[in-house]
Please model this.
Amino acid sequence: MTTTPATLIVVDDDPEIRELLADYLGRHGYRALVAEDAEALHRLLARETPDLLIVDIMLPGDDGFTICREVRRTSEVPLIMLTASADETDRILGLELGADDYLGKPFNPRELLARIKAVLRRTRTPSSEPEHTRLVAFGNWRLDRVTRELIDSQGERSPLSGADFQLLQVFLEHPEQVLSRDGLYELSRGRPAPPLDRSIDVHVCRLRQRLGEDAQHSQLIRTVRGAGYVLATRVDVLP
Model:
């Protein structure tokens, strides 16, 4: 049985990097397409449905932030951002806009490959998911773990990005347990948190917004000062 390779699109204005990554990812079993800017990406997206985007922040014309913002208006396709800036603000802004992960330049292609595999693992739903575990109820919400959609009390559905879905999954698997930031990072991303990394705070903020809450009045995901976060409600698996 043959498996269709995942389609990746690399958006970078450096032709050497585009060629290097396309060749490297192709040798590791991926179908790698390239675009030099936002306009070229939009042309590709008009005829392709990629499994993941890899987008450099610094691009001519529309930058990576603009691309991320526009993509998130219509799609939850996983997105990894590349940044040459050492400023944490760039990384935080990318995550706030809906990026699933980020990687600083220069980088080892093997590390990017590991990030790609991790993001695809998080965002692809196994076809063997038992049907009886599909819906999970918590508070006034339900999560459809097959379609990766939140369902509100009125039955309205809204899709989650890969990063938001995986973080919510971690909370649902550990209800009413205080989880540290480092613990949440490792459980949701499959690797230890970098020193002083605060990206989990950004993702928790995004997830709260999806649940109609804010940090000051959150009843579902509560901050435990000096310890981390807790999903402060019971979780029920629905038949």
